[in-house]
Amino acid sequence: MKFDSLDFYREHASRYSNLSHEFTHSLYTDSSLTGLTGDMDLLKRIVKLAPGRRGLDAGCGAGARDVHLLNAWGYQAYGVDAVEENVSLAKSLHPEIADLIQVVDLREPLPFDDASFDFVTCNAVIQHMAPQTTEQTTLPELARVLAPDGVLQLMFKVGSGVVTVGDKAYGSQSVARTFQLYSEYRLLEVLKELGCTLVEASGKEELGGLMYFNDIKPMRHCVFWVRKSDSWSGSTRPTTTGAGRAKR
């Protein structure tokens, strides 16, 4: 089964960036928590959960909106995306973060040293990957670059199997898009083996645990945070020979 190809994002990079920066596709419906209304609720929460100010947006998308926002808020945030057009557009829109974003495919080892980041976000990315790749490469790599006590945010379309839906956001006619669905419980099992455990909510109004919402298509999503054990000494993947530690 062929998921959304990189060609789709190359073709629609500008439109994707506009939707992202306008926040028109970043608001949620049918949320499982009253305090979860959109992307910004998650972004503001993860920086409070993180033990430090170094962050990575893994799959930052066209325009790298969140990388731009995080750096504007005073964080040291970096972004990677598999689509060259997405990264080029981000550098054009936000030249002040041009040195902080690069083309990287999350199906491959990341070009950062172990424990480079205090928080990592990976939003709506693994839905474009086969589960084997997600479990054997992507998640281990995200855990590897996460510092002890660091926090990973993982958002994905929830369910089982593969689904094709119409998306009306990219032209006058609906565009057929195909996504891999994931079990939240299976992903938590994999992450637990990597030394990461679910961040639960400590109060009724606080975000945490397994959270759910619908997007504009609509499709059901799950999002959660996991924290890496500060005493984790297990193996994830072999160290990469990439670009080294994130600049400080």
Describe this structure in words.
With about 250 residues, this protein is α/β, with parallel strands linked by helices. It has a single domain (about 5-20, about 35-155, about 185-230), classed as Rossmann fold, CATH 3.40.50.150. About 30% of the residues lie in helices and about 25% in strands. The strands form 2 sheets. Strands 1, 2, 3, 4, 5, 8, 9 and 10 form an 8-stranded mixed beta sheet that branches. This is Methyltransferase type 11 domain-containing protein. GO terms for molecular function: S-adenosylmethionine-dependent methyltransferase activity. InterPro entries: Methyltransf_11, SAM-dependent_MTases_sf.
Topology as a string of helices (H) and strands (E):
HHHEHEHEEHEEEHEEE
Radius of gyration, in angstroms, nearest whole number: 17 Å
CATH architecture: 3-Layer(aba) Sandwich
Please write the CATH class name. Answer: Alpha Beta
CATH H-tier superfamily = Vaccinia Virus protein VP39
Tally of individual helices: 7
Tell me what portion of residues adopts beta-strand conformation: 15-25%
Helix content: 25-40%
Main beta sheet, described? Answer: 8 strands, mixed
pLDDT < 50 runs, ≥5 residues: 237-245
End-to-end CA span: 41 Å
Structural class of the secondary elements? alpha/beta
Quantity of strands, as a count: 10
Please give the domain count: 1
Overall mean confidence score, pLDDT:
86
InterPro entries: Methyltransf_11, SAM-dependent_MTases_sf
Organism: marine metagenome
Domain Methyltransferase type: 56-152
GO molecular function: S-adenosylmethionine-dependent methyltransferase activity
